């Protein structure tokens, strides 16, 4: 099992949105082996209640860091309201020290709804296409030229440290499809304190699934 420092390093490869952002417990995988990359990934978030006493900007997401330094991350965002805002989003790398956000349309969602975040590489364009769905209805899409995805992980994020308490929640039906099989990919799995969930493969390491990831309540 990777150490917490290794988990943080792997997710740093995911080019987390802001070095100042505060992060809660996460489930992470990656980086992939040198001869592979993530071709497709999907996971469904069962939305919790909006954070209590949120005075800032809280977000739940699963993301993929890429060889270009981009972060592909559809987001369920809460900004001091009773609802979540769901949208496709990529944080694109513009230099070694700067990034620029690219965002798709946003749609409100509420506790109990299921938000599916799907990322797929398109060979024809060389882009990753994001699709964000609420209860199986597409609400936001985005396509970006981002290189090849190197890792995948979940996040409980607060833009500062004033997001109150984010409720326990689950990610279900997670699937990560690699370009070529990597049977050792399971050794990159990391879980923060209180996080549960396990990956498995039935095809020698090309397709990895996690039936359920449980993330505990977290207070910023």
TrEMBL record:
The keyword Signal applies. Residues 1-21 form the signal peptide. The keyword Signal applies. Keywords: Signal. It comes from the Eukaryota. This is Fucose-specific lectin. The lineage of its organism: Eukaryota, Fungi, Dikarya, Ascomycota, Pezizomycotina.
């Amino acid at each position: 099992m990777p150490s917490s420092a290794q988990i943080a390093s792997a997710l740093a490869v995911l080019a987390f949105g802001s070095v100042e952002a505060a992060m809660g417990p996460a489930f992470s995988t990656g980086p992939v082996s040198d001869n592979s990359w993530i071709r497709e990934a999907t996971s469904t978030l069962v939305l919790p209640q909006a954070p209590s006493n949120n005075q800032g900007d809280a977000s739940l997401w699963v993301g993929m860091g890429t060889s270009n330094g981009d972060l592909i991350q559809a987001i369920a965002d809460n900004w001091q309201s009773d609802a979540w805002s769901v949208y496709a989003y990529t944080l694109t790398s513009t230099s070694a020290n700067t990034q620029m956000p690219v965002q798709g349309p946003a749609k409100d969602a509420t506790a109990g709804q299921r938000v599916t975040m799907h990322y797929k590489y398109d060979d024809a364009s060389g882009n990753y296409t994001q699709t964000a769905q609420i209860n199986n209805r597409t609400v936001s899409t985005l396509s970006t030229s981002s290189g090849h995805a190197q890792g995948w992980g979940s996040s409980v994020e607060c833009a500062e440290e004033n997001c109150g308490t984010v409720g326990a929640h689950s990610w279900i039906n997670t699937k990560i499809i690699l370009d070529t099989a990597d049977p050792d990919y399971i050794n990159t799995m990391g879980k923060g304190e209180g996080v549960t969930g396990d990956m498995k493969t039935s095809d020698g390491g090309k397709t990895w699934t996690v039936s359920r990831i449980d993330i505990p309540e977290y207070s910023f």
